[in-house]
Amino acid sequence: MIEITEDPLQPEKISAKVTKATNGGIITFLGCTRLYNNGKKVNYLEYEAYRPMADLKLMEIVNEIKEKWGLKEIAISHRLGHLEVGEISLVVAIGAPHRKEAIEACTYAVDRIKEIVPIWKKETFEGGSVWIGSQTGEPFIAPPIIK
Question: What is d(CA 113, CA 48) in angstroms, rounded to the nearest whole number?
């Protein structure tokens, strides 16, 4: 199961999708908006995506996990839009017969999402904002909004 939504994520419901009697290991990763990044206080995040490609790339990751570990219970949900500090932006849930494969597959999924899925994060902090993971490697620092 993959999902990209602007609605708040519900980790319990997403984890339930991979909970089966055959799975002894259920791993759920939550990516949350943190209060500080690189020494700056974060006010909020905004996520954008190129949806057709993002959906395809998430399915690609699911298929890679199925091929590499032989797992079938995989759920990935990513949130778009405005997120306050403490809100969940990503849920990856993996069910496997044993914990080792579940942990490895979950770590792989999170890393691959950051590598290949066209979802971009704009971090707004005291004094400006920056697009995280820009292609140029140089962050764009927007000037503060003057009211």
Answer: 14
